Amino acid sequence: MIGILAFTDTGRALAGKVEAALTSESSAEPVDLFRGDRGTAREFIEEHFREYDRFLFIGAAGICVRLIAPYIQKKDRDPAVVVMDELGQFVIPVLSGHIGGGNRFARELAALTGAQPVITTATDLHGKFAADVWAAEGGCRVLNTDAIRYVSGAVLRGDRIGLWRGPFPLEGELPPELADVRTEEDAERYECGVSVSLSGEPEPFAHTMKVVPRIVTLGIGCRRSTPEQSLEHFVERFLAEHHIHICTVRQIATIELKKEEAALVAFCRRHDVPLRIFSARELMETEGAFHHSDFVEKITGADNICERSCVRAAEGRLLIPRTAENGITMAAAVKDWKCRF
Fold first, then answer.
1. Is 19 exposed, middle or buried (0-12, 13-18, 19+ CB in 10 A)?
2. How many Å is the Cα radius of gyration of the chain?
3. Which of 192, 262, 312, 332 could form a disulfide with 154 if both were Cys (CB 3.0 to 4.6 A apart)?
4. Which domains does the chain have, with CATH numbers?
5. Residue 171, pLDDT score
């Protein structure tokens, strides 16, 4: 969701034009235009700052800074915030230019309005590889955002940084700032680098930016009224046992019968992941070799919930087969992912 705020008649007129341009396609991201009819701008920001992905302020940069200042947290949590003057001459990213996509949003707005994008991030100014942008655009999470400054600093100094990519294939041409590192001996040649994994554990460089692709889908079946804490603890143990970081989980999948199960709904809300729901027929139509249970099929109409639902949702392959504990069954599937450049 995109939030747009304007503070003068001229600014509101421009905001209307931007809203129309952003929503002109059926697949466009929804826009919420603040018009001053639902409380104050400060209340609008307080309510939606953690909820919306991007904000456009049309007006003075100072107004924007004062409104968002109390709610700024971290690089990987803050939404993109962009400011445009009310005449539409300049558009400036002021928060989360890389991970949140603020720079990209500014360029998008510039293309729509004819404004001049004013980009201030150093790697962009020098035309250098930005590891945090690459991670965000690849659907990944950076686990230790403090390491970004070391990696970016090395790139800006002209130093090469290492890329430790584990089992993930390489696709495209590697940027000149990067070196493909395959052994610990090679890794010792680079002070800074990027490590890509599902576990988030490898730190092959003195300063390692740890990146995890969000490609894991958990399929879950559970007994009615399963305690929230029981589900949370089972997920923690399940992932830890298989060396998978929680930030790799992009969605939870289950059968329609469980769409309002309190423990599942609460887990998804707590970890900000969607709950994918499938009918028994859809699960039984999912191709693959799955664990079969006559009892589960009799009760739900599908012979297996966790394996079938995660494979169906991930549109990928089964990574971890069915595991059961205290009335909960869990499996994991993963979609194919590559280090693309």
1. middle
2. 23
3. 192
4. 2-120 (3.40.50.11220), 131-213 (3.40.1390.40), 216-339 (3.30.420.180)
5. 96
Distance in angstroms between the alpha carbons of the first and the last residue of the chain: 27
How far does CA 115 lie from the centroid of its chain?
Answer: 28
C-alpha 283/C-alpha 310 separation (Å) is 10
Q: What are phi and psi of 226, to 5 degrees?
A: -60, 130
Q: Please enumerate in sequence order all residues whose Cβ is within 8 A of that of 335, keeping only pairs 6 or more positions apart, or say none.
A: 215, 217, 314, 315, 316
- H helix or E strand, kind and range, residue 192: strand 192-196
- What is the rounded distance in angstroms from the CA atom of residue 245 to the CA atom of residue 104? 28
Contact between 275 and 297 (Cβ < 8 Å): no
- From the list 4, 73, 81, 2, the residue with the least C-alpha distance to 36 is 4
Classify burial at 332, counting beta carbons within 10 Å of its beta carbon; exposed 0-12, middle 13-18, buried 19 or more: buried
- Measure the CA angle with vertex 53, ends 164 and 255; round to 5°: 80
pLDDT, tens only, 304-337: 999 999 999 999 999 999 999 999 999 999 999 9
In whole angstroms, what separates CA 79 from the centre of its chain? Answer: 11
Residue 251 identity: Q
CB 117 within 8 A of CB 89: no
Question: How is residue 69 written in tokens?
Answer: 């200042």
Taking the C-alpha atoms of residue 57 and residue 55, their distance in angstroms, rounded to an integer, is 7
- Mean pLDDT in order along the chain per 10 residues (341 residues): 94 93 82 86 94 95 95 90 96 92 93 93 88 94 95 96 96 95 93 97 96 98 95 97 98 96 96 97 96 93 97 97 96 97 95
- Sign for the CA dihedral angle at 311, 317, 321, 326 comes to negative
Note the pTM of the prediction, 2 decimals.
Answer: 0.82
φ, ψ of residue 273 in degrees (nearest 5)? -125, 150
